[in-house]
Design brief:
globular, alpha/beta, 18% strand, single chain, 28 strands, 6-stranded parallel β-sheet, 6-stranded mixed β-sheet
Amino acid sequence: MQFRIADTFTASLARLTADEQKATKMTAFDMQVDPSSPGLSFHKLDKARDKNFWSVRASRDIRIIVHRTAASLLLCYVDHHDKAYHWAERRRLETHPTTGAAQLVELREAVVQVPASAAAAMPVRGQWIAAEPKPRLFESLSDGDLLGWGVPPEWLGEVRGADEDSLLELSAHLPAEAAEALLELATGGTPQRAAPPPPNGDPFEHPDAQRRFRTMDDAEALARAMDSPWDRWTVFLHPAQRQWVEREQRGPARVAGSAGTGKTIVAVHRAAFLARQHPESRVLLTTFSPPLAHALHARLRRLIGNTPLLGERIDVVSLDELGERLYRYAFGKPALATPDWLRVALAEAGHPAAAPPQSKPVPKLSAAFLWSEWAEVVEPWQLETWESYRDFKRLGRKTRLSEAQRAAAWSVFARMLERLRAEGRVTPSGLFSRLAAHYANGVKAPFDHIVVDEAQDIGVQQLRFLAALGRQRPNGLFFAGDLGQRIFQVPFSWKALGVDVRGRSRMLQVNYRTSHQIRSSADRLLGPEVSDVDGNSEVRRGTISVFNGPKPTVLTLASQDDESSAVARWLRECSAAGIRPGEIGIFVRSSAEVARALTAVASAGLPSHELDAMVDTDPDEVSIGTMHLAKGLEFRAVAVMACDEDILPLRERLAAAVDESDLREVYDTERHLLYVACTRARDRLLITGTEPPSEFLDDLV
């Protein structure tokens, strides 16, 4: 007998208490071991329209809804007795007549109809008149068109009557592939049609069905699916995600998408897939920071479960940690020049007393400019001679330098490089540059396949190092990232370093994490299209969210005390709505503002903790951290506090900008930071600041 689990079951399981979940899991395991056991309390649902729906008693009041036939058993839903029965009475398991995919279809007549716009009315000068009806979005589409996108036949009439006000409510009642297609059509896109099913094909094997149903081959697979019911991605993948997880790539490839579209999910599944497909290979799953690598490792463990042999062949480590490890193996322990050491050393190299005796007077260059030029040009590009610096195309640098000024700057950089050599120190970029040359010269690479998450924030020499490891092998390099979330690196050309993803790049456009209202608001912080230096574009206009939620709240308060009180009220409202402390995150621009968040949480009477470098959340406490630590996290509710005029963008960064290019980069990355923080929210988002507020808040309302 085929034993399957539906995504509606894992979602409903997540809403139960811990004791209720435990009872449900024990009953589910018993059904998997022996579905005919007399100890299982199967009860036929007389009022269900689908005669194969049964209920199974998990505890005194908890019922599991299953779809049972002679050949299969499907776990569909779990809830308290009356709610579980009500759910079953409004559903039917069907095979779509056009796509051939198995669908749990909500019965149309059981749904409360959404009022049409034409029925709305508004007062004008004391009289009520009917509002102008809004156009119906899909009125001109044929039955064949709608059926081809997975719309159930009984919903064709409601779909044709939908306008922009009713579409999101309607989509919540449709199978996922139909809802996504309609939302994409409404936003100007052209959704792909499912491939025609093979004759007598299994409806559960259809790609659209696999996003919501999965066969559980053994108890371990079932346990993994139910241990983390919020982690739907460990069991179910969208067809577009699965395509890029399993696709054969002949060169470097990249999957992009805005926050919440599942790029990291694709990266983790890709690493596991490559390890399974190539049993003799070693796979690297990496990213630019240790906290994100830690999060990747946790997700990989949740995905692969108790398969130690597979896990042993997948290394999950940050790029910096990997670089130091490989450098130590090849050349010995590096004496790394830290950023603080470099700043001090550069300031000393630029002091007039450091110039050689009898040297000619040189044009005055500010310390801020010298550091910016070192950090964005000389060090990342590893310019080691006057000629290489003189001839380097300073892309994006608006401060024009005469040859005398360049020579003056180089005299400082030359002293800096000489000190590094004299003390035997290596810079981070220098470390990766030497490793890149080492592996480019034919030394055997330690990995066969490399998967990189948050690729938009890797550096020049890190990419050169990865290119040397990948060596243009099939499936050698796979990147996941979002240009709109770039907050650590200045843009540079990947193609110039031998990594060309043109023709092997895909934009994910279905947002699973963030409500339509939050995503739409956050997207206003960025342009509709973001491009890299090589001309690869990420078009954000077509991104759709698959669920609704409250509109984000943006508040500007008179004082920090008022802000604290407002956030505390919001936190209490979240608690009253059933949102647990561990499902709430609060983010601020820098550590200087953390105290404001701590005060608000304390006023609400909730427990909290500050996120550290490993970004470990606690299920029983509100998480508080800086916006830089928000990457990789998600919460049901998020508050972004202290969005004041001098804090966002940060005044110190604006003051340090030395030219127009620097200033634009500061504004871009500060916007990206706010975007990252806002898009950690699933259902509720609050943004607050005090008078005068950040100019970015105008874009959110």
